[in-house]
From TrEMBL:
Function: Catalyzes the methyl esterification of L-isoaspartyl residues in peptides and proteins that result from spontaneous decomposition of normal L-aspartyl and L-asparaginyl residues. It plays a role in the repair and/or degradation of damaged proteins.
Entry protein name: Protein-L-isoaspartate O-methyltransferase
GO cellular component: cytoplasm
Pfam families, sorted: PCMT (PF01135)
Gene3D superfamilies the UniProt entry points to: Vaccinia Virus protein VP39
Length: 225
């Protein structure tokens, strides 16, 4: 698979941050992430570029951080976990992401799959994410400003779909847009804690696995903000 590597040389970071990054990778490994390619991509993706400068010093902590508009950049562990689940049955060609946010998960995916289709309802977040991916020369991503409940039917179906906000129920449109053997990783639940689900399109119908308890911001309904 051919994909561009982020140009880290232009974002030179000191020895301290390099150590901090290595510590994060060790921690993710200790917490159970095991896909070497996923860990390597997280190691080389400059997460400090995806948060406000004032928060950059916390970028390599394993924690969600605010990105404005009441939204958060996902915790690195959760980015790695969901990416591993998506890739667990082999390499993927087309992956749709719902909830671009900062674009960090997008950047990780873009280095591991052929093409990423990313949907976000808040235009200003999407604009910043686009700039960051362009800066990192990740060119295999297209963006749609729209409602993730509807997916992106025109460019589907997708071999993988990842949703980075919690849905009260699994959106029917996303099931419809899964290719044969396609995998959907989605936090589902209406309360503060939700469950991470892995749904796979089988020859007949869908299989459904309930995985970890998780905490995401809600997948919102209604008009775009
Ligand atoms: N993966 C992102 C997570 C952002 S938080 C990151 O690591 O930065 C969840 C994102 O989902 C927010 O940007 C929010 O605006 C977006 N979102 C919420 N409801 C949505 C919907 N219905 N359609 C598209 N995006 C939505």
């Amino acid at each position: 698979m051919a994909f561009e590597q982020p140009d880290l040389s232009r974002h030179g970071i000191g020895m301290t941050s390099q150590r901090t990054r290595e510590r994060l990778i060790q921690r993710l490994y200790d917490e159970g992430l095991s896909n070497a390619r996923v860990l390597e991509v997280i190691r080389r993706t400059p997460r400090h570029l995806f948060v406000d400068e004032a928060l950059a010093h916390r970028a390599y902590e394993d924690t969600a951080l605010p990105i404005g508009h009441n939204q958060t950049i996902s915790q690195p562990y959760m980015v790695g976990r969901m990416t591993e689940l998506l890739l667990a049955a082999g390499p993927l060609d087309k992956v749709m992401e719902i909830g671009t946010g900062s674009g960090y998960q997008t950047a990780v995916l873009a280095q591991l799959v052929e093409r990423v289709f990313s949907v976000e309802r808040i235009q200003s977040l999407q604009d910043r994410a686009k700039e960051r991916l362009a800066e990192l020369k990740l060119r295999n991503v297209v963006f749609r400003w729209g409602d993730g409940w509807e997916g992106w039917n025109a460019l589907g179906p997708y071999n993988g779909i990842i949703v980075t906000a919690a849905a009260a129920e699994v959106p029917q449109a996303l099931l419809d847009q899964l290719a044969p053997a396609g995998r959907l990783v989605i936090p589902v639940g209406a309360g503060e804690l939700q469950q991470l689900l892995l749904i796979v399109r089988e020859e007949q119908g869908f299989s459904r696995q309930v995985l970890d308890p998780v905490r995401f911001v809600p997948l919102l309904n209604g008009p775009l903000a």
